[in-house]
Design a protein that fits this description.
Blueprint lengths: L1 H22 L7 H23 L6 H28 L3 E6 L4 E4 L1 H7 L3 H4 L13 H14 L2 E9 L5 E12 L5 E10 L1 H56 L8 H31 L8 E4 H12 L9 E6 L4 E4 L1 H18 L6 E9 L2 E8 L6 H4 L11 H7 L5 H11 L4 E6 L3 E9 L1
Parallel strand pairs: 7-9
Antiparallel strand pairs: 1-2, 1-5, 3-4, 4-5, 6-8, 9-10, 10-12, 11-12
Length: 443
């Protein structure tokens, strides 16, 4: 537009100069008029060229429009900040230098259970849990001195009285003169992190306790083994001297003396068995019992059991029956199986009657296993004792134990040995009619 005005002004000025030149000749018609019009044209063209070369100035209207545009930009920025503040998923609150809340966002209102009107105008200390009020006061004072707060851990309180741990971080707010007006505080609920740390700490505590228990178990095991070995030291000579005294060639003893010697020998034998059972229980509990497999004929093994157990039947004159219907060669721990049989047979001896007692042991092939059993015609097992018969550390009734004898460990040991050899053990019993223990050993 400015370029077009300049060209027009030049043309008008040029036409004016031509008119002036024409008017200089007085002899031509209308010379004076042409000269005057030419001067006007030159002047007009010059003015137009001059005006077109000037920069445009703002009119009042333009200034008003520009001012309105600046205000709109500020409003848009403020609206944008307000939207970010309100829509933030992080709790935010704005406080003045006295600690009074002058603004807060929806996340803050929702978490604390208040309305915004209830919050604004209240003190930030109203939302500190009792155990953190002093910490909140120190944090606020430090902010006033240093001008910043970064990840300060504070326990806060909701409207319903529940509390939660949070991290507080604050940035300062200044007026247009640079004076501190307050702060905008970001609050992060760290309940999940806190509980996760608590779980980790609890696991660490349990780990330490477990280590302590393992140490105690180790000490207990060491004590039992040492105690058992020490107890066996005086047992061996007692048995030995009892056997010497019972031998008639060593001297003359009357009936009462012989009965006393026999009583001592019997109780020493029981004590020895109890010590061995304690040692075995400890080994089984700590998986330290050794199992060695070897091949042996089942019928020969059963006859050896007969040779070992027959002498035990003499005192009560028990009928002892051995049935071995298989010559199968089994590969298992013969020593431990021998221990199982002796335990079960001794258990049966304790419970059969003094007159007409009967014990039967047998073996036969059954599928992929060898089935063994020990049957007696003793007192049987009552219904209330059946569920606990194989339980570890099952305490037998004292009066029952005194009447029939036994340590109460034998069946627990038998079950553990059979299961370690890959077999199963169970029983059938009827009170007053006897008991039959069955166990299998895989081929």
């Amino acid at each position: 537009m400015n370029s077009f005005s300049s060209i027009g002004g030049l043309l008008i000025g040029l036409l004016g100069l031509l008119s002036v030149a024409y008017g200089f000749n007085p002899s031509v018609p209308y010379a004076f008029q042409a000269f005057s019009a030419g001067l006007v044209g030159v002047a007009t063209g010059g003015i137009i060229v001059w005006l077109s070369g000037r920069k445009p100035t703002k009119t009042i209207l333009t200034q008003q429009l520009d001012s309105k545009s600046t205000k709109n930009d500020s409003y848009l920025e403020l609206a944008k900040y307000k939207a970010l503040y309100e829509g933030s998923p992080v709790m935010q609150r704005t406080v003045n230098t006295d600690g009074i809340i002058i603004e807060c966002n929806q996340a803050y209102v929702k978490n604390f259970g208040n309305t915004k009107n209830d919050v604004i105008g209240t003190s930030l200390f109203d939302y500190a849990a009792d155990q953190s009020k002093e910490d909140m006061r120190k944090t606020f004072e430090n902010w006033k001195k240093s001008g910043k707060v970064e990840n300060s851990e504070i326990w806060l309180k909701r409207k319903d009285g529940s509390t939660f741990p949070a991290l507080l971080s604050a940035n300062n707010i200044f007026d247009n003169k640079g004076k501190l007006m307050g702060s905008n505080t970001l609050i992060r609920d760290i309940s999940e992190v806190y509980h996760a740390h608590k779980v980790v700490d609890e696991h660490e505590r349990q780990k330490i306790q477990l280590e302590e228990l393992k140490k105690m178990d180790s000490l207990k095991e060491e004590f039992y083994l040492t105690f058992s070995k020490e107890c066996k030291i005086p047992v061996d000579p007692l048995k030995k001297y009892c056997e010497i005294l019972k031998d008639s060639s060593s001297g003359k003893l009357d009936v009462k003396q012989l009965e006393a010697i026999e009583e001592i020998h019997t109780n020493v034998t029981k004590l020895e068995q109890l010590i061995d059972d304690i040692i075995d229980i400890q080994k089984l509990n700590n998986n330290k019992m050794e199992f060695k497999k070897e091949s042996f004929a089942v019928d020969e093994f059963m006859h050896k059991i007969n040779d070992i157990c027959s002498p035990l039947m003499k005192e009560k004159k028990i009928e002892f029956i051995v049935k071995a219907s298989t010559k199968y060669v089994l590969k298992s721990d013969k020593t431990r199986l021998n221990q199982v049989f002796i335990n079960l047979v001794q258990n049966a001896i304790d419970f059969v009657p003094h007159q007409g007692g009967k014990i039967e042991i047998a073996s036969r092939e059954e599928g992929n296993s060898i089935l063994f059993h020990v049957k007696d015609n003793g007192v049987g097992i009552s219904e209330k004792r059946k569920e606990s018969i194989f339980k570890k550390f099952y305490q037998v009734d004292i009066s029952f134990k005194r009447k029939y004898g036994g340590s109460g460990f034998g069946l627990v040991i038998c079950k553990a040995i059979i299961e370690n050899l890959g077999g199963k053990i169970w029983f059938e019993s009827k009170e007053g009619e006897g008991t039959a223990f069955y166990f299998t050993i895989p081929k």
